[in-house]
Write a structure and sequence with these properties.
The structure is a homotetramer. Chain A is mostly helical. The first copy, chain A, has a single domain (2-107), classed as Substrate Binding Domain Of Dnak, Chain:A, Domain 2. In chain A, 81% of the residues lie in helices and 0% in strands. Chain A contains five helices and no strands. Chain A has helices at residues 2-5, 7-29, 37-58, 64-82, 88-107. The B-C interface holds B 41-42, 44-45, 48, 52, 56, 59, 61-63, 66-67, 69-70, 73-74, 77 and C 41-42, 44-45, 48, 52, 56, 59, 61-63, 66-67, 69-70, 73-74, 77. Chains A, B, C, D: It comes from Oceanobacillus jordanicus. Chains A, B, C, D: It holds the Pfam family Csp. Chains A, B, C, D: This is Four-helix bundle copper-binding protein.
Chain lengths: 108, 108, 108, 108
């Protein structure tokens, strides 16, 4: 049963999507929003692909490795951007992104 | 912080989406698939809207009550269809749907 | 055939989603991004729901009126924000949003 | 401007998503639904990724080639399944899938 098999990955994707969406929301409220533009953009990209893959895994998609490989790449790009910023939401998001990227690579 | 405030609802939506997607996958593998056509259709509708709302809540959407109200309605429709079928995946899905519908109504 | 029946609405949703996503991208590149924060947020909300409904209509969702009613509301909110800004991408986006809101209301 | 640059691809993705969703809906109504199970599953996979990529291109995603490469693969898998079936909706869907796969490969 795919969604059992991928239980941990589904959880990492869920946590990463939530962290990215929270970081996106928090960035939009920051005073220094100009500095956060790339972070806002990548937060959305990353939240969207994590949510997509979480959803796809739970319906037993036949395209696990292809999708996980793209997702890993997007998680890393988002984590690399987020870790540049000192805001707590960015640091937490970077952590969730790197953890999720690793989990994706394991099935890619 | 919206995603903290809605933590329980986000969890219910996540569990409902996973249950619906699993039921969808399992229905597609059933011998009596003809009987499951409406279940397959509603599983997808319900998984998609739950995943959407989970995602929207975690980015602090300004449209919580409108989206939760539609989601509650779709969860109920899916739960009502699933509970007609004896398959374990359908019974579990119905339970997740009704629980999620209640959680949605609380914020709608 | 639902996707034939709703052909014009599907087209309006498609155009609105593209306009909102383009406006989102362009806002993220503006010098005065601080002023555009709410526009960025609503562009994403509106693009996401339009894309969702377009997709749902083309698969003959049983929840046309409920979804179209939420979508109309989000399109209006996004259109109202966008029309405050003089950027061409905002003005074009506002136009697409109001046109789409009307099309949604016709089926809601 | 990304959405201008990718105008034709966005159109192919849109048409493919609509064709897949229509085929999915029609398959669920077929008498011989048992034979259509794989077609239903792949129609959803393909509609979802095409809709995702259409959306991502229109917001100027930095991950065009990675996403287009996965999308091409899913379009081909769906086209190959659909072309096995004589139903008009399957034949039309196969055609849209192969056309979209080609368009994706051009940017992958």
């Amino acid at each position: 049963m795919s969604h059992e098999q991928h239980k941990e990955l589904i959880q990492s994707l869920h946590e990463c999507a939530v962290a990215c969406n929270h970081c996106y929301d928090a960035c939009l409220k920051e005073e220094d929003i100009k500095m956060m533009a790339e972070c806002i953009r990548l937060d959305r990209e990353c939240a969207d692909i994590c949510s997509y893959l979480e959803h796809a895994l739970s319906r037993n998609t036949p395209f696990v490795s292809e999708l996980a490989s793209v997702c890993a790449k997007i998680c890393e790009a988002c984590g690399n951007e987020c870790k540049k910023h000192d805001h707590e939401h960015c640091q937490k998001c970077a952590e969730a992104c790197f953890k999720c990227a690793e989990a994706c690579k394991n099935v890619a």
